[in-house]
Amino acid sequence: MKDQVELVSGNRAVARGALDAGCRMYFGYPITPQTEIAEYMSMVLPEMNGVFLQAESELAAINMVYGAAGAGRRVMTTSSSPGISLMMEGLSYLATAELPCVIANVMRGGPGLGNISPAQGDYFQAVKGGGHGDYHTPVLAPWSVQEIYDLTRTAFDLADRWRNPVFILLDGLLGTMMEPLRTREPVPEREAPSWATTGIFAREANDRTPRSIYTLHMPEGALTEVNRRLQAKYREIAREEVRYDEHFTRDAEVLVVAYGSVARSALQAVRIARQQGRRAGLFRPVSLWPFPEEALYNLSEKVQKILVAEMSSGQMLEDVRLATAPSCKIEFAGAMGGELIYPGTILTRLQEE
Amino acid sequence: MAVLFSRPQSLTDTPFRYCPGCHHGLAHRLGAEALDELNLREKAVGIASVGCSVYTNEFFNCDTQQAAHGRAPAVATAVKRARPECFVFTYQGDGDLASIGMAETIHAAARGENISIIFINNACYGMTGGQMAPTTLPGQKTTTSPLGREAAREGNPIDMMKLLNALEGPAYLSRVLLTSPGKQAAAKRSILRAFRAQMKGLGFSLVEILSACPSNWRMTPVEALRYVDEVMAKYYPPGEVRVAKEVLEG
Ligand SMILES: Cc1ncc(C[n+]2csc(CCOP(=O)(O)OP(=O)(O)O)c2C)c(N)n1
Ligand code: SF4
Predict the structure, then answer these.
(1) Cα A102 from chain centre
(2) Distance between start and end Cα atoms, chain A
(3) Do A64 and B78 touch (CB under 8 A)?
(4) Do the Cβ atoms of A311 and A286 come closer than 8 Å?
(5) pLDDT of A3
(6) Separation of B195 CA from ligand 2 center, angstroms?
(7) Which bound ligand lies closest to the C-alpha atom of B17?
(8) Chain B contacts of A200, Cβ < 8 Å?
(9) Measured from the CB, is residue B214 less than 6 Å from ligand 2?
(10) Per-residue confidence at B95, pLDDT binned at 50, 70, 90?
(11) Confidence at residue A160, expressed as pLDDT on a 0 to 100 scale
């Protein structure tokens, strides 16, 4: 079982990662290109003594996640861009109540109903908070089926470690493509945390004070205090949870910065450029928040130029600009409306001075 | 000395902060007494909603979660499914339950979700200062229906009992009043039945309480009681509309 390799889609890898992390509760609402996750969960969760519930809307789904997380269970929901927009109010409540949960967004073309092709236009929404108020959620951006599985498992641990919602940011290409997956030993669901509303009866005799999960803080100064605590936590996350991946960066004169499926095109372009004698490299942020600022800054001091490749009008581009040395030339290769970025496009830009 | 009357165990000693003549406090008390009598306090997870009763979590002496506006039935659904051994109830106003949260209410009821809802219908949005609610009566003046609600302009009120009674899911549905001691006793019997429905695993239960909001109705508490009896109860007839026979057994 342990060394078995299976051919599965990215969507399925999200589900498998969640199940192997001990997640036994899933709430969701159908939307292309990620409905396969819900379908798979509806098939396997009942057999595992878990809970699958098709919610009446994404609004309901995210609030079901709130209830289940508050009751101390490992829980997840998944959706795609328009559905994630509907969840943003709930995300703000989850972040404020500090409830651990995992949300995967398999991004599609937007804005509006957009289309069902791969896109990365929800970057701002994911990394800057997205709902109302000052909050952050860690955002993990895998680029392969294997990494989708691995990071989904990681996401549950991060959610618990920081008592915070955690995002997996994918795009339609990653969600629907199939690759070999090697799963690891599953872990059982963890016990309910010490703050969860489990009902008093479920607790020891010395732990019988009622618990409450709430987000209204009306007394003078109370909300300021909550915000201070949250911001201190976010600073700690920003210090401890930075993740990135580098390819051929050691001697690079030109650097591509890309995440998700675009980073795959970028790596191919970088390899071809190298064969042609151009010393290209790839820097791939894996945590989009916290953004790997320091590592990127250090590289930006050494390279002649950075090319940001992204399936949007230039969202991560802004974070790259903020994180890089002022002397570094920054260029952009974007695609919108569900168009892909092919290696050839990136290669051409790498060949330019 | 024998104690004849005391605070229910299921209420904290936090003083209510409701207006004089408001029915929220009474409704809390009846809910808490029912929890006590059925020995549910330690098993309970109460879901507060957004409205004047947003602090329900401070008043009920059990585990609680505060839901976003309208989402309490979704939150309760998940808590119950996460911890089926818990007793899960929500406490919601009419703006919360019948307007912004209508989808969550209807779907939780249709699924026959094994939760109980205490529904406070005061025909207005209390907390935000008396705007029109879906339950605002024909002709009733509110700050956003200043000329009095007129079907052609503001639309018709929604009778939640009729709406919910069209579904298969509910095991117990009842509408009650709190305008006299006798009616309060009957209201409590309804709440007990609703809670028992959940304990027996029969599905969705809801008690609608026609409630006074003297402040926003611009009435004295006594006038408000009369308004509930003479106007509201005419439009929204009290009584049990759904009682699964198993609710009464045992
Ligand atoms: C998403 C959202 N929209 C609007 C509000 C503002 N709001 C707070 S309470 C309330 C109405 C509450 O009325 P009701 O549910 O009837 O309860 P009552 O105050 O009458 O007890 C509104 C509209 C909010 N908190 N959240
Ligand atoms: S505004 Fe109305 S509902 Fe709110 S506390 Fe006052 S009387 Fe009660």
Answers:
(1) 9
(2) 51
(3) yes
(4) no
(5) 65
(6) 25
(7) 2
(8) 41-43, 62-63
(9) yes
(10) very high
(11) 98
In the prediction, which pLDDT does A43 show? 98
Q: For the domain A5-182, what is the CATH code? A: 3.40.50.970
Where are the CATH 3.40.50.920 domain residues in chain A? 245-351
SS (H, E, C) chain A: CCCCEEEEEHHHHHHHHHHHCCCCEEEECCCCCCHHHHHHHHHHCHHHCCEEEECCCHHHHHHHHHHHHHCCCCEEEEECHHHHHHCHHHHHHHHHHCCCEEEEEEEECCCCCCCCCECCCCHHHHHCCCCCCCCCCCEECCCCHHHHHHHHHHHHHHHHHHCCEEEEEEEHHHHHCEEEEECCCCCCCCCCCCCCCCCHHHCCCCCCCCCEECCCCCCCCHHHHHHHHHHHHHHHHHHHCCCEEEECCCCCCEEEECCHHHHHHHHHHHHHHHHCCCCEEEEEECEEECCCHHHHHHHHCCCCEEEEEECCCCCHHHHHHHHCCCCCEEEEEECCCCCCCCHHHHHHHHHCC
Whether residues A200 and B75 touch (CB distance < 8 A) is answered with no
Chains A, B: CB contacts within 8 A come to 133
Q: What is residue A353's predicted lDDT score, i.e. its pLDDT?
A: 78
Q: State ipTM.
A: 0.97
Q: CA B57, CA A212: separation in Å to the nearest integer?
A: 7
- Residue B116 — very low, low, confident or very high, per pLDDT cuts 50/70/90? very high
Cα separation values, B192 from A257, B25, B85, B173, B183, Å: 62, 18, 18, 12, 14
Residue B181 structural domain: 24-248
Q: State the amino acid at position B18 in one-letter form.
A: Y
Report the pLDDT averaged over residues B169-175.
Answer: 98
Alpha helices per DSSP H over B41-144: 56-59, 72-82, 94-95, 102-110
Task: Please state which of the four CATH numbers 3.40.50.920, 2.40.50.580, 3.40.50.300, 3.40.30.10 is assigned to the domain occupying A245-351.
Answer: 3.40.50.920
Look at residue B13 and tell me if it is in a domain: no
Is the pTM above the cut of 0.90?
yes
Split into its structural domains, chain B has a count of 1
Contact at 8 Å (CB) between A121 and A317? Answer: no
